[in-house]
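Researcher: Please translate sequence to structure tokens.
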Amino acid sequence: MAERLITLNLRRYLVEQPVTKRQRKAINYIRERVAHYTKVDIDNVKIDMPLSESVIKYYSRKMKPIKLSIDLKDGNAFVKAHQDSIRPTHHVNKDNTKATGTNNVKLNAPKPKENTTKLEKPIAAPKQKKSAEKKKTE
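Model: Translation complete:
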């Protein structure tokens, strides 16, 4: 098993492509360049799912260079992002919550402790003043 590290400059290729087709073309460009560097058939290049998601969501828009780790096994090239270059595929808000639509999920937040104390009597709603009611009836 041989492992190679390469850096691809996506901007050089994606600048010439239409904006609407850059996501698909970025994945195909990575596949094409890896096949060229490793001298395997383009059909034998397998791209890792987290790498594919980060290319579609981040790298196809920002067109930054990306570091790739390539494992060669039995004529197949398995491509994954190098540890330092992976970008998050989700947006994290300032209060350390993951934006997931209506349900915000806390990241690395401690679990809430269960309330073991007995609840007190519920507080009754304040009573209305009777003098205001008497004036209305008069």
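Researcher: Any highlights?
Model: Residues 10 and 63 are 5 Å apart (CA to CA).
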